[in-house]
Amino acid sequence: MQRQQIDVLPGESVRVGNLIVTVLYVEGDQVAMSIEDPDNATWMDPVDLLDRDLSEPVGA
């Protein structure tokens, strides 16, 4: 598995495997993302960046 860093601004999307991840907003140390899977199911999950080791991928 290769690790890459991709800078994504609010409103931008990136494909990660078979998922489409869109950054909805960033507020302080949190980011809200919309994640769409191949079945078109979509969910949003705020992530607190202070509680994560940024060398690990989000969702790991």
Note the topology.
Layout: E1 13-16, E2 19-27, E3 30-36, E4 42-48
Antiparallel strand pairs: 1-2, 2-3, 3-4
Q: Would you write up a description of this structure?
A:
The chain has 60 residues and is mostly beta strands. It contains no helices and four strands. Strands 1-2-3-4 form a four-stranded antiparallel sheet, with no helix packed on it. The radius of gyration is 12 Å and the shape is globular.
Features of this protein?
single chain; mainly beta
This entry's quaternary arrangement is single chain
Which sequence of strands runs across the widest sheet?
1-2-3-4
State the low-pLDDT regions, or none: none
Structural class by secondary-structure content: mainly beta
Name the overall outline.
globular
> What is the helical fraction, as a range of percent?
under 10%
N/C terminus separation: 13 Å
> What is the radius of gyration?
12 Å
Profile the largest sheet. 4 strands, antiparallel
Strand content: over 45%
Mean pLDDT score, rounded? 75
What is the count of helical runs? 0
Order of helices and strands: EEEE
SS elements, strand count: 4
